[in-house]
Amino acid sequence: MLKFIGVRLIQMSLLFLVFLSLLFFLLQAQPGDFSTQFLDPRIPPENRDLIAARFGLDAPLWKQYLTYMGNVLQGDFGVSFQRYPRTVVSVITERLPRTFFLFTFATLLSYYLGFVLGKVLAWRRGGSQEMSITLGGVLLYTVFYPWFALVMIWFFAAYLDLVPVNQFLTPLRWRDAPFSANSVFTSIIWSTLLLSIGLGLALWASRKPDNETQRRLVKWGGVGLTVAVFLAFWMPHEQRTYATDIAHHALLPIFTLALVAFAGVMLITRGSMLETLKEDYILTARAKGLAPKTIRDRHAARNALLPVTTSFVLGLAFIIGGGLITETVFSWPGMGELLLASVLTQDIPVAIGALAMVGALALIAHIIVDVMYVFLDPRIRYQ
Prior knowledge:
Among the domains are: about 1-75, no CATH class; about 95-180 and about 240-300, no CATH class. Helices cover about 75% and strands about 0% of the residues. The chain is built from 16 helices and no strands. The chain is globular, with a radius of gyration of 25 Å.
């Protein structure tokens, strides 16, 4: 396994270098250069040449390429043209927690609900409920998303007045805040991550006892303890009021994203589960007299997880890019909105930095998927 991971890391590193090279040459292929992008055309030619020299654009192409690769591999993506003199890394670091918060919560919610409902529908195939829920899932999966998001805003924000219409916080409440919004986003993300780990450990530990009563005691005892620790952390915390404000603004975009993504996960799980139920080991498990819930959850659903896991991990890798439509419609200033603004204003360093980060996370996600396959399906082994 270690040898396989090492080989894959080398392959991914080389592929990342190719990806960075493509970004560089695509940048070189665009008309003009950095020295003429934001300058008054009336500037004398000698001053223009001086600016080009300071950018290093008077050097040969191979030297520019080596300088570019050396800077990027050190994490130096330059400065933002639109937000000068701020660096690209600082701009991305400011926007990243907002997008990570929004899309991680929506992704986790959609995959959990989609997987649970998908396996139940496949197990109870043929009923009227399966037909209606599957049809509803297909409609949500194929809906025109910008229109659907606007309808959700009209109904829940304008008509029912349950959630705010735009932005990710209430400016008046944050005017005298002793800390930044990003620090609150970071606290929410880390605490929720620890909560998820605790809940996962509780569910995993509940599978060990043989007695059903003991399993339920371990399961709900672990869940209750984890939730109690989570609440004990946030109730006296000075950021609690501000975290509640952020959560209030995030409810509608998270719910809208999860509702659309959930439909696709449900359909993938249902199809994978139906194929798994045809396998011989499912017939053997039935012949042994195992409980239907055991056959469904421990035999069929575990192997049906493979395509769902692939979609989940790769989906998490691309959340850093944000949802261009989602963040625009809901006025959520994240990575998607940043990419759009950087392209419209020709802030090329910011766009290149965000794309490089997306590429790195996508490659890491592929390695994670390869390793997880071994634990999800015992039939898979790496030689």
